[in-house]
Amino acid sequence: MEHRDHTDLRRPRRIGGRRAAVATAILAAGAVLAGCGGGGSTSSSTSSTPAATPVALGSTQGEATGRTVDGIKCERQEQVLFHIHAHLAVFANGRPAIIPLGIGIAPPRTVDQSSGAPFVLGGSCFYWLHSHTADGIIHIESPMTRTFTLGNYFDLWNQPLSATQVSSATGPVTAYVNGKAVNGDPRAIPLAAHAVIQLDVGTKVAPAPYAFPDGL
Questions:
Q1: Are 141 and 126 contacting, i.e. CB atoms less than 8 angstroms apart?
Q2: Global pTM?
Q3: Which residues are paired to 137 by β-bridges?
């Protein structure tokens, strides 16, 4: 199959999609935080904050830079045999958390900022799981079909993920997949096609909807 990278056919489409995704994420987070606190599914620990300033979540310091991690290799080009996308949102004590861009793209990175929001065009290599933007979209682009998990992604990021911690945020973790609460180890959550994953650390937040941009 012929490879098409982000500098040719997919890049222009994703610029527009990225803007829509960022706007959708901000609006969704605001709506969730404004609307929490009522209804039978909420509790005393559910956020009722009308607005919240986003908080940075960890960094990419110490990330994987080329070594194979969990059987996931870092390739010179992105792979297309198995190509799906998932979305991750994290709330830390009711505040939307910003996940760094470029996870899974080894430095030195090339970043395009011409459209306003940074987009990582490339780096020294691409892991089969990676992100180009800070909007939570995870790109799963692998030369083989297999089940990847959220734990794999955090291992590439070199950040902790457990029932009591998500990167730099600590506290009881509540996980949702496609709007439904899931129990067990959050590391085991599959990165399925168009999975909408939300992790609440500490204060619970009602699961927010997410619409993938066209073309993803």
A1: yes
A2: 0.79
A3: 87
